Amino acid sequence: MAGSPEPLSGQDVGSFAYLTIKDRTPQILTKVIDTLHRHKNEFFEKHGEEGTEAGKKAISLLSKLRNELQTDKPIVPLVEKFVDTDIWNQYLEYQQSLMKESDGKPRWFHSPWLFVECYMYRRIHEALTQSPPIDDFDVFKELKEQNFFESQESIISLCTYLQELMRTIEELDEDQLKNEFFKFLQISLWGNKCDLSLSGGETSSQKNDLISSLEDLKPFILVNDMERLWSLLSKKTREKASVRVDIVLDNSGFELTTDLVLADFLLSSKLATEIHFYGKRIPWFVSDTTIHDFNWLIEQVKHSNHKWVAKCGVDWENCVKMSRWVYHDHIFWTLPHEYCAMSQVAPDLYAELQKADLILFKGDLNYRKLTGDRKWAFTIPFHQALSDFHPAPLCSIRTLKAEIQVGLQPGQGEELAALEPSWLTSGNLFYLQTFVLHLTCGMDGRKHKIEEDEADGIWRNG
């Protein structure tokens, strides 16, 4: 994109992108291959010899992919026909057109990290689709379910807190309601630490009581725009009969539970009248939420032996049945494009997001796509890094797990680096930052007007 810095890539030896491509992605591929090996008897029981051969074929294709990655082979076009195959291959041609060498080809360590990492997960999906009758097998299903089951104590604590609050929620004054809103936002924020792609597929469950830890964790929020979100939603509820909040989901398991608890609170507090969720159409980045994960989790919660957890499950199922909760998936979420391209690549999705009064983007991958995964200076304003992507007021809620961060005060990034060199990728700092057209909120809490010049499209801080 003209005027934007270059994207992060594996060319920078020692960078987090380089180490991810070199170490973490081969580790994930190895775990996927091991998963297929462990399920070979299941494939045979379900499909006979055809299932056994399909498992062998998928393993062979994934072993080939792992070799291509580790030896920095050229990125090859997708071959199995799927709804997004042509779009992917066109994007590959676009990446080739950007290569500096006249005869160069996109490669794992030389192309944008966002592109090659997404491409790896898309190739995993292709290996399965090329191997019927196991083409609908989710290689990450066990890990996602394990994360949920290992987080039971925290889930019980969250659901109990929510259900006890429901008894008195209509009696809360505005300040009390705002404080509860902040709690549920922070719970959803902390839930983002449970990312299986960051841990290379190792267990990443939540075993501590988050609610009792909120005050201790608050100083680790690097950018905190919760007051801005409260002002936005409380104003909307006064002005409109219906308020829609969209949540672009990240991880399933414990994080999805925190998102559903937040959604339940938003409806019960009347800060929203409908919630729209967006998940992935195919298994993605190990733990990302699909429609199966969404429905499975609600079913598990509904059948819990704990009364308050089960009550949440019943309530959530009713929200879906009554269309107060609406789940969407769209193939764009598993394309390699930056979100600033959405209005051209997926105008139907962009139009859907425009119906929201607020969009919450969960997690690091969404943040990377919002900002283009580029080498922005830490002090670049969030709205500038969004590159004109503003379908509606939006908020990024993430744990820092990639070497990209914008919207900081001068010297803040350098100060953090001196205290903890790996602050951008450690997962120990958090980020809750909003962008609202015409009005944004800085870290100092002061509001700054942003005016868009319709003639030249330049943003001006005033």
List keywords for this structure.
single chain; alpha/beta; seven-stranded mixed sheet; 11% strand
In short:
With 462 residues, the protein is of the alpha/beta class.
Topology overview:
Blueprint: H1 16-38, H2 40-47, H3 49-70, H4 85-97, H5 113-129, H6 141-149, H7 152-166, H8 174-191, H9 214-217, E1 221-224, H10 226-239, E2 244-248, H11 254-268, E3 274-279, H12 291-302, H13 307-321, E4 325-329, H14 342-345, H15 347-353, E5 358-362, H16 363-371, H17 382-385, E6 394-399, H18 412-419, E7 430-435, E8 439-441, E9 447-452, E10 459-461
Parallel strand pairs: 1-7, 2-3, 2-5, 3-4, 5-6
Antiparallel strand pairs: 6-7, 8-9, 9-10
How would you characterize this protein structure?
- By secondary structure, the protein is α/β, with parallel strands linked by helices.
- Helix content is 47%, strand content 11%.
- It contains 18 helices and 10 strands.
- It has helices at 16-38, 40-47, 49-70, 85-97, 113-129, 141-149, 152-166, 174-191, 214-217, 226-239, 254-268, 291-302, 307-321, 342-345, 347-353, 363-371, 382-385, 412-419; strands spanning 221-224, 244-248, 274-279, 325-329, 358-362, 394-399, 430-435, 439-441, 447-452, 459-461.
- The strands form 2 sheets. It has a 7-stranded mixed sheet. Strands 8-9-10 form a 3-stranded antiparallel sheet, with no helix packed on it.
- The radius of gyration is 22 Å and the shape is globular.
- 44% of the residues are buried.
- The model is unreliable at 437-462 (pLDDT under 50).
